[in-house]
Design brief:
This protein has about 280 residues and is an alpha/beta fold. It is about 40% helix and about 20% strand.
């Protein structure tokens, strides 16, 4: 249950897609003065050392963020994301990678709030330590919960501000996570129908993964947007991650057009073979 550590995968192609979308959501919410809450159901460690033993062992970031880092032809939404990673590093060298909580922390304004769930007994200690290093300003607005985010989310909805982004991002190490994600989204929408929900999922050779977007569309009571990036042909042995997707409920109205312009470029740059492709679709409840 607790074997998954995101440090092995930090900055890979799946993080690139997830965080491109997340940065756009954060920037959109900041356009209005009204405060909002950012809630992360599976926060992980928050930040990762790409030169560390874990990330360095797999070096998955070399086929992800590292392919974007030196380029000077980034589409606007990709440039927004890379700018945030650069700001986290503080210079032109790619040494560290900000997870979703730290990207949100960088976007945090005085009246916004950060709510992070993490159940892994080691990861949460690292998350707390990393958050302390962000400084007192972020700490004042952040609460960290050592509990199951699927269950803990219920008590936070709706947030007092009635504005919020909820990232649902489990490891899917347990195949029951697919059903729990759909249930979490359905219950969340009952409590907070106008919230923006972003669900990340892996593209793996498992029926639950393949069926998840359609399942989420069925439980959605609002407009939705589904974006997926496949970087290679599925492995013959059935193992490994060949892509990932994001399913967003109540997306910003500008997001679909921005991704439509970006995805062909991103697919070409992150492709690992000739089978790379993307999906972009939307719908109403």
């Amino acid at each position: 249950m607790f074997s998954y550590r995101h440090a092995f995968h930090a900055g890979n192609h799946a993080d690139v897609l997830k965080h491109i979308v997340l940065v756009q959501l954060l920037r959109y919410f900041a356009q209005k003065e009204a405060p909002y809450w950012y809630i992360d159901t599976h926060a992980g460690a928050g930040a990762y050392a790409l030169e560390g033993d874990w990330a360095g062992k797999t070096a998955e970031f070399e086929a992800g963020i590292a392919r974007l880092w030196p380029r000077d032809d980034l589409p606007a939404v990709v440039a927004d994301y890379v700018d945030e990673v650069m700001a986290f590093n503080g210079d032109e060298f790619l040494r560290h990678y900000p997870g979703s909580p730290f990207l949100a922390a960088q976007a945090l304004r005085e009246r916004d709030r950060l709510r992070l769930f993490e159940l892994h007994p080691t990861e949460i200690d690292v998350l707390r330590r990393n958050c302390r290093q962000l400084g007192r300003d972020v700490g004042r607005h952040t609460m960290i919960y050592a509990t199951d985010g699927f269950e803990g989310l219920k008590a936070l909805l709706p947030p007092p501000t009635r504005r919020g982004i909820v990232l649902i991002d489990p490891s899917y190490e347990d195949k029951r996570d697919y059903a729990r994600v759909a249930q979490c989204l359905e219950e969340g929408l009952k409590r907070f129908a106008t919230g923006c929900y972003a669900v990340w999922y892996p593209q793996v050779q498992r029926r639950e993964s393949q069926q998840l977007p359609a399942r989420l569309a069925r439980v959605s009571t609002r407009g939705w947007l589904h974006v997926a990036l496949t970087v290679r042909k599925p492995a013959g042995d059935g193992l490994g991650l060949h892509g990932s997707g994001m399913f967003i409920v109540n997306p910003p109205w500008v997001l679909e057009a921005a991704l439509k312009e970006t995805l062909p470029w991103l697919t070409e740059v992150l492709a690992q073979d000739g089978h790379a492709t993307f999906t972009l679709e939307s719908g109403q409840a």
